[in-house]
Amino acid sequence: MEPADVGEHLRAVPEGEGLLTHLFVCTQPGYRGWTWAVSLSRAPQDDAPVTVNDVVLLPGDDAVVAPPWTPYRERIQPGDLSPGDILPPEEDDARLVPAWSAGDHLETLDRYFAREVGLGREWVLSLEGRDLAAQRWQDGDQGPDTPLAKQAPGRCDSCGFLVSLAGRLADRFGVCANGSANDDGRVVALDHGCGAHSGARLSRSAGPQKLPEPTLDTVTVDDVDDL
Description:
The chain has 227 residues and is of the alpha+beta class. It folds into 3 domains: 3-59; 92-125, no CATH class; 129-197, no CATH class. It contains 5 helices and 9 strands; from the N terminus they run ββββαβααβααβββ. The protein has helices at residues 72-75, 99-102, 108-117, 127-139, 147-150; strands at residues 6-16, 19-26, 34-42, 50-59, 96-98, 123-125, 162-164, 173-176, 187-189. The strands form 3 sheets. Strands 1-2-3-4 form a 4-stranded antiparallel β-sheet, with no helix packed on it. The protein has a 3-stranded antiparallel β-sheet with strand order 7-8-9. Strands 5-6 form a two-stranded antiparallel ribbon. Mean pLDDT is 84; it is low at 104-109. InterPro entries: DUF3027 (IPR021391). Pfam families: DUF3027.
């Protein structure tokens, strides 16, 4: 801190017995709205010296400060991972449960045996994880509320290009297998839709129109300068 960085005295704030904080305007470039806080203390004796405890910069109401820290897991968005990047799940990720406790299409009596011999997957989706995925897909670009779906000639559940899913989500979602569609290879809601539906047909108004016979104008005089 340089003397030139300290501006006018704003106020003194009592912090306790023998403890006082003086606030000064910070005139350092780039620190508009910040104040210098000088914390002083003194023992009860009359001849006790004054001690400078701390000198810090504190932001005011109109100070420019960094945004709150956001953990990296909350900053990562779909598509951010590059080849070689690793994003392991949390230790207590509520979206996953051990396969032996949730099934993985195993009968109840076989789950413990599968765990012992290492068959099947170690982890599977929990009920919460499945519901979160279903809600995300339903609300996303492959759901029923997009402009593409609202103007589609038919829903995905009646499209010949839909590949059915197996399991608990089969009654709500499928996979698009139309290479000409926007959602090819993606999970789509059964009430989603697009213009590439297998039953789509061009209406007469959308088909090619027959042009009228050309007309030879023998009355109007052409302006050569405009040609």
